[in-house]
Design goal:
Blueprint lengths: L7 H24 L10 H16 L2 E2 L5 E2 L3 H11 L1 H18 L4 H24 L9 H31 L3 H9 L3 H21 L2 H39 L8 H15 L4 H12 L11 H5 L6 H7 L2 H9 L8 H7 L21 H15 L11 H11 L6 H9 L1 H13 L16
Antiparallel strand pairs: 1-2
């Protein structure tokens, strides 16, 4: 298995998080009023520790290069019951045990232990600062300080994880944070309330309270995992459908996935919102889905140039693609329009509706550039792939005619796009050479 190379700046970031966690723990041992009471009973501490370990072992994957678990419920409850320092110790011990059992790399273990410990310490520090009781005697008195504790905990946790992923993979921090965090906010708020219930029940019934809520906690995890698996299955089905279409034409294998990746980067470079970026990537993935109809099969297999009649038939594929996309209720509207108009030209000479300038949806204008770039950087029956410099020259030449000049400028200014195109060609074993024929044309 190839070794993952971690950038130096990501390592420095991890070192900073570890240092912050150590400093926070040292301060906690000096300021935590619960330490003056003495050590808590060993039995309850071990109960929290082993339940936390169990839940941490049952982690799940997030959207962008990270994992999550519902063990945070137990860690928050431990801090409410035993105070910041013991809560942090239980958190660290559970994480270390889980990472050792899963044989995680040392650097990853150090980071995850530190960022979770730091999140628990800062969150419970805020709780104590707002005069929250340890352990809380009633829900009413603890509600406000606990709310502040939860906000602090998730802010530190999500920012720390998103930061290291963004630095490690060269992604935009905002996109990583949004994709890994935003969709889980409601789930995390509901789940974290169980921590307060555990702490209140503990003050009345002891460690049995922890065992009593494990069932509801696991039920919450099950609901979340079912939802996550449904989303993953839907995306995999779309990928499978696109791959089955592209299997008809060896020259376009992987084309739609590459266009989706380029479209996502262009949308991000243009500063579009996260929802629009996701919808544009989906539209780009499905932009040629109409070619699955049988009338297009002979055209896709033909190695010579198309006849005028065949070219007219091929020009109908955006309409057929949009009609097919529109049969899925969640894709109607934005995605459907982007697919229909991805062959419109900025000067109004495109098809199927002859739209011009800003009448063309921004998603379609982005896909037009991404689609053309991938066509130019891939081998086709009528020419070999073009070098990157030739591609940028062609885009500049036809900006304002075929392409939106704003999207072309975004393409030129993105170093990530240049790297993605180079990687795509390298992965496909493509060598480039100049072509004598006109290249800025797509079916």
């Amino acid at each position: 298995m190839p070794r993952t190379i971690i950038p130096k700046r990501a390592k420095l970031y991890v070192a900073a998080v570890i240092s912050a966690a150590v400093l926070a723990l040292v301060l906690s041992t000096q300021l935590d009023p619960q330490l003056e009471v003495g050590a808590p009973p060993l039995g309850p501490v071990l109960t929290f520790l082993f339940v936390g370990l169990f839940l941490e072992l049952a982690e799940h994957h997030l959207a962008v290069s990270a994992t999550g678990s519902i063990a945070f419920i137990i860690f928050l409850a431990a801090a409410l019951v035993f105070g910041p320092t013991w809560g942090a110790a239980i958190t660290a011990a559970s994480f270390i045990g889980a990472h050792l059992l899963n044989r995680r790399p040392l650097l990853k273990t150090g980071f995850n232990v530190s960022q979770y410990t730091l999140s628990v310490l800062l969150g419970s520090g805020i709780y104590l600062g707002l005069r929250g009781e340890v352990p809380p005697s009633s829900l009413d008195a603890a509600l406000l300080p606990f709310g502040a504790m939860v906000v602090t905990f998730f802010a530190v946790n999500s920012l720390a994880v998103s930061g290291v992923v963004a630095l490690s993979e060269g992604r935009a921090f905002r996109e990583v944070w949004r994709r890994n965090t935003w969709g889980l906010v409601a789930y995390d708020v509901v789940a974290s309330s169980i921590a307060l219930a555990i702490a209140v029940l503990y003050s009345r019934f002891g460690a049995f309270a922890v065992a009593g809520v494990v069932g509801p906690v696991l039920f919450l995890r099950h609901i979340y995992m079912v939802n996550l698996q449904l989303q993953s299955t839907n995306h995999e089905m779309l990928d499978l459908m696109v791959k089955s279409i592209e299997a008809r034409d060896p020259y376009t294998s992987g084309h739609s996935q590459r266009v989706a990746a380029l479209g996502r980067l262009l949308a991000r470079e243009l500063g579009l919102g996260f929802g629009d970026i996701d919808r544009i990537a989906t539209a780009a993935l499905l932009h040629d889905v109409g070619k699955m109809y049988e009338e297009f099969a002979p055209l896709l297999r033909k190695e010579s140039q198309l006849s005028p009649e065949e070219y007219q038939l091929m020009r109908s594929h955006p309409i057929r693609s949009a009609e097919l996309v529109g049969t899925i209720s969640t894709l109607r509207g934005y995605v459907e329009r982007a697919v229909r108009h991805h062959h419109e030209h900025y000067d109004g000479t495109g098809y199927p509706d002859g739209l011009a300038r800003t009448d063309i949806p921004i998603a379609a204008r982005i896909i037009m550039v991404a689609d053309t770039v991938d066509a130019m950087t891939s081998h086709r029956p009528y020419r070999r792939a073009l070098p990157y410099d030739r591609v940028t020259s062609e885009l500049s030449k036809y900006a304002g005619q075929q392409f939106d000049p704003v999207v072309v400028r975004a393409f030129h200014s993105s170093s990530q796009i240049r790297l993605l195109v180079a990687n795509n060609q390298s992965d496909s074993g493509i060598t480039t050479e100049p072509a004598a024929t006109p290249v800025v044309r797509l079916a």
